[in-house]
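User: Fold both of these, please.

Assistant: Here is the first one.
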Amino acid sequence: MSLRHDGSVAIITWNDGENRINAESLARLNALLDELEATTGPLSVVLTGAGKFFSNGLDLARFGNNPDEFATTLSELERTIGRILLYPAYTVAALNGHTFAGGALLSCAFDYRVMRDDRGYWCMNEAEIGLALDRKLWSIIDHRLPRAAAIVAATTAKRFTGPEALAAGIVEAITSEDQVLRHAVDVAEGYVMLDRTTLSKHKYLAHGEEAALLGWAS
């Protein structure tokens, strides 16, 4: 993951093939979030991927022979989602490509999501691959998405196209591939002057109980 700035908007780009979620990727994301949180003044944060993937979910191939690492990584993903829900700056996910399973859950942590309108799917495919959600994981989509969309996502493994995700309330906007990041940065720029202390307090009112359930103690 790399970090650059467009004015007061911090852009984190995840460029590691399928952008699988593992201990290293979560540690890097949290280190960048630490760095930005320690700054003062105007700030919004955008997370995007590169190529075909925003994130293809947990690094299941890596965990096949190490179930303990799977459990600790899943716990850290939950904590990271809780952290982003309460993050003291406006956050935007620029979904440049496939956003599956753990990647879909991660996208739910952001204040705003924009997805490309032509290719790429948003999908909770656990029912398809035989990896059941637990109460915490279900709570993420139940908390952040319209309930009907959350139920369809969890029970059918539907691959939502951009237009379908917009209609279902999974994302706030769709746009062409070459405009996804630009749209995200423009939206983020509109909120850089929010008072970060007040925003943090309001996020706690909105998401504090969910973040606590996910293991993030603010």
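And the second sequence with its predicted structure:
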Amino acid sequence: MLISSGTKKPNVHASAYVAPTAVLSGDVTVEEGCAILYGAAITAEGAPITIGANSVVMENAVLRSSGGGVMQFPLSIGESCIIGPGAYVAGATIEPGCFIAARSVIRNGETVTENTTVGDVNDAFFADVFNLEDGPDVRARAAETYSKFLRKTHAQDAVVPETPKKPAAPKPPKRTAEEPPPAQNVEVEKVVDVMFVELEEARLRREAAIAREKKGKK
């Protein structure tokens, strides 16, 4: 989602990928080949933000700049950097080829020098995750490989419409203690027929008994 702030609005290169739930607000520039993943929040408040070519901003990372009449803290992410999930980077300079690990915090005015890792990452990380041989430029190579993979993978993403849910069957109204119980459906005609047969049989039995009694008296 791209949001204008005042007279400033995000400028995203046509080759970059921005996930639909990422938010870019204000004076934000995303250069070619970048990938901005789900939940990332990139907010320029009084100073610009620049994300260099082939960089990756991962899920739920927060990038922000700030500035007023006295102090300015622009945020610059160099080319071929990876900003890990949940990282917080504010008003800093991240030079090219850096890897900012998950949940790392970098504050206003700080500088991360070229080809540096910030955060808890073991020595075999880039070999295990990206299948890359170690070297001074391994972070940059990881960013370029990963951004290319992400742009290709998400190129055909589309929102899937939800299947309409069937409405729940209405519940019968609750009856109070004063209300009579609901009437039961009874087939009245069948009940009457049974009663008539029983009465007729009783009448015939009485008549037969009277006839026998009269015959015995003769």
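The CA atoms of residues 127 and 133 lie 6 Å apart.
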